[in-house]
Design goal:
Chain B: InterPro entries: NuoE-like, NuoE_dom, NuoE_N, Thioredoxin-like_sf. Chain B: Belongs to the complex I 24 kDa subunit family. The structure holds two protein chains of two kinds. Chain A is of the alpha/beta class. In chain A, helix 6 crosses helix 9 (208-220), helix 13 (324-338) packs antiparallel against helix 14 (344-362) and helix 14 runs antiparallel to helix 15 (367-380). Chain A has 17 helices and nine strands. The radius of gyration of chain A is 22 Å and the shape is globular. Chain B has two domains: 5-64, Arc Repressor Mutant, subunit A, CATH 1.10.10; 76-177, Glutaredoxin (3-Layer(aba) Sandwich), CATH 3.40.30.10. A four-stranded mixed beta sheet of chain B has the order 2-1-3-4. Chain B is elongated. The chains are: A alpha/beta, B alpha+beta. The structure holds flavin mononucleotide, iron/sulfur cluster and FE2/S2 (inorganic) cluster (FES) (2 copies). Iron/sulfur cluster (SF4) binds next to helix 14 and helix 16 of chain A.
Chain lengths: 439, 178
């Protein structure tokens, strides 16, 4: 496996343009400029690249939805809002190798024929946004952005937009509203952004990692990309492991690495004396996986097959020292607080779920409350305006199945027998950062 | 409290590169917030003029987006993540220690003006849990109750040294606890 997204992470500082180019940076443009666009989209489809923002939709297929005679301007919008708990991959590239983002955006914009690109960065990544802005300026000064780039006839500028908080901004249509200067409430779909997006124009929205894979696929080919994966996965992915493990971190590994290798070989396994109870494979909205599923390959189809989702590939560990109900309550509380307030099932339903979980903690829960949680999840899930609330109830439904006896125990014992969560800051050196494939 | 002509020109230029003026609103609001530490009423009128949004429409944005604020905060704004990865590593205790050391409720300014502590959603620092962020620019990782207490203590001392004065009270509070 060749590192792609983290190939420059061994440098102490983000590379300036000259050093980045000396290492082969922007070489991909030679394989892209002048080549037939449709052919490139087809190659992308063949590569098996899927959206890294959570949904795992085929990138080539998404790009093929853009009409050939789409009205101008066409926009490319990069989603760097990364706020799903357990996800911390895009931040690494932003802070450590911003030129990789500029190259990815430029390559992708050329292929879809975008007139302008926006990179939407969450406000908490302000320092990273400044690093990206600097890289963009370097690229402009070198003629890699601007009019008639390298004599190709193609023109593009990249606008780095610093957002101001709220998880919902990551939902692609809410993001478009945020960019336009509105509250970030999601829009109705259809029309999909590819037809009517930013300022009503055709728009492609992609996660930052997704576009960063594009240059090497074009440069080295779809087959090369497939060969980077394992056990049926294509390419590499920036996996993340967090929670009570010895070596939490971000790891660029083959798509399809097993959960066991990821958690035990790369993240060092659980803290001493802790036992793995369950884990979320791809951020806080993904259903739990259990220790007997550790040999599942971590790629979209394999994880979906066992009833969960690969999501962002951010693995979160639940060990035997934390009450599973308390863990689940923390997840719902996040979604309840981050609800944009637009639709009632989400705005009112999620806080009510938190309230019901509180009754379990306080020891006042009854079997009827247990039943209400179950029913409420079924009512919220399919009835909301966007995917935030369905994402919130998925792990709750999974917890209801997995920890049925815990719910009953809390009712019978009138409370919780677990201790509060202990503070266990890792001893790892600060900024340990991304670690490579094999070490 | 008003923007200089030069600043207004800068903001106008920024707004111009969007097809619609209101797209520049967040940038303008950030600009005044960086200048004053919060968004005062007078600035709302100025941004309103620049963006063609009424002060109420601007307030609609400010009340929606969590990083924008209409009230001052302490010299240092400390956000501490309470989302799941940090929670499993004891963020609750870190938050409790921070609140105690600041001597006030979350979101309020400590008596010496040194800090405001706020719980936060995931900061994208899950690999360094429990994590935090100071002034939306300095990362805090591998936090412990002791570490956060020491940090708040150092901010109190920094405030004491600075011209803005204060700090004694929080030092007294911290001494009391030891
Ligand atoms: C509530 C919510 C939050 C989301 N947050 C993000 C995010 O922070 N980053 C991201 O890339 N995608 C996020 N998504 C997914 C986007 O809506 C969209 O699918 C994605 O940006 C498409 O890019 P991709 O195909 O490259 O993955 C979120 C979706 C929902 C429903
Ligand atoms: S599901 Fe929640 S976040 Fe999505 S539109 Fe409805 S209220 Fe907003
Ligand atoms: S429900 Fe609160 S710790 Fe178990
Ligand atoms: S969960 Fe705390 S930084 Fe992500």
């Amino acid at each position: 496996m060749e590192k792609v997204l983290s190939r420059n992470f061994h440098h102490a500082q983000p590379l300036d343009l000259a050093t980045y180019r000396a290492g082969g940076g922007y070489d991909s443009l030679q394989s892209i400029f002048g080549r037939d666009r449709e052919e490139m989209v087809n190659e992308l489809r063949a590569s098996g690249l899927r959206g890294c923002g959570g949904a795992g939709f085929s990138t080539g297929l998404k790009w093929s939805f853009l009409a050939k005679d789409a009205p101008r301007p066409v926009y490319l919008v990069i989603n760097l809002d990364e706020s799903e708990p357990g996800s911390c991959k895009d931040r690494q590239v932003l802070y450590r190798d911003p030129h990789t983002i500029v190259e990815g955006v430029l390559a992708s914009a050329y292929i879809i024929g975008a007139d302008k690109a926006f990179v939407f960065v969450r406000g908490e990544y302000k320092v990273g946004a400044a690093k990206l802005e600097k890289a963009v300026q370097e690229a402009r000064d070198a003629g890699l952005l601007g009019d008639n780039i390298l004599g190709s006839g193609f023109s593009l500028d990249i606008d780095v937009h610093l957002s101001a908080g709220r998880y919902i901004c990551g939902e692609e249509t809410a993001l478009l509203n945020a960019l336009e200067g509105y509250r970030a409430n999601p829009r109705s779909k259809p029309p999909f952004p590819a037809v009517k997006g930013l300022w009503g124009q055709p728009t492609i929205v992609n996660n930052m990692e997704t576009v960063c894979h594009v240059p090497s696929i074009m440069h080295k080919g779809a087959q090369w990309f497939q060969g980077q994966g394992q056990n049926g996965g294509s390419g590499t992915h920036l996996f993340q492991v967090s929670g009570p493990v010895k070596n939490p971190g971000v790891f660029e590994l083959p798509m399809g690495v097993t959960a066991r290798e990821l958690i035990y070989d790369h993240a060092g396994g659980l803290l001493d004396g802790r036992k793995l109870i369950a884990f979320q494979p791809g951020g806080s909205s993904t259903p739990f996986m259990t220790p007997d599923q550790l040999d599942t390959p971590m790629h979209f189809d394999a994880v979906a097959k066992i009833g969960s989702r690969l999501g962002t590939g951010g693995v979160i560990i639940m060990d035997d020292t934390i009450c599973p109900l308390k863990y689940t309550r923390n997840l719902i509380e996040f979604y309840a607080r981050e609800s944009c307030g637009f639709c009632t099932p989400c705005r009112d339903g999620l806080p009510y779920l938190v309230h019901l979980f509180d009754k379990f903690e306080l020891g006042t829960a009854t079997a009827a409350d247990h039943q209400t949680i179950l029913e409420l999840c079924g009512l919220i899930g399919p009835n909301t305006h966007c995917a935030l609330a369905p994402g919130a109830v998925m792990p709750v439904q999974s917890a209801l199945q997995l920890f049925d006896d815990e719910f009953k125990k809390h009712i019978a014992a009138k409370g919780c027998s677990y201790s509060p969560v202990a503070a266990t800051a890792s001893q790892a050196a600060a900024g340990a950062g991304v670690q490579g494939g094999h070490h | 409290m008003s923007l200089t002509e030069h600043e207004i020109e800068h903001l106008r230029e920024h707004i111009e590169h969007y097809p619609e003026k209101r797209a520049g609103a967040i940038y303008c609001l950030y600009y005044v917030q960086d200048k004053y530490g919060y968004i005062p009423r007078a600035s709302l009128d100025e941004v309103s003029e620049l963006t063609d949004l009424s002060p109420t429409q601007l307030d609609e944005l400010i009340t929606f987006y969590t990083l924008l604020r209409r009230r001052p905060v302490g010299r240092r704004l400390i956000r501490i993540c309470d989302s799941i990865s940090c929670y499993t590593r004891g963020s609750e205790q870190v938050l409790a220690a921070a609140k105690e050391a600041s001597g006030v409720e979350f979101g309020q300014i400590s008596k010496d003006g040194a800090v405001t502590v706020l719980p936060s959603i995931c900061l994208g620092l899950c690999d360094r849990a429990p994590a935090g962020l100071v002034d939306d620019s300095e990362d805090l990782g591998e936090l412990t109750p002791e570490k956060i207490r020491d940090l708040i203590c150092s901010y109190a001392a920094e405030t004491l040294d600075s011209k803005s004065g204060g700090g004694q009270q929080i030092l007294a509070v911290l001494k009391d606890q030891q």
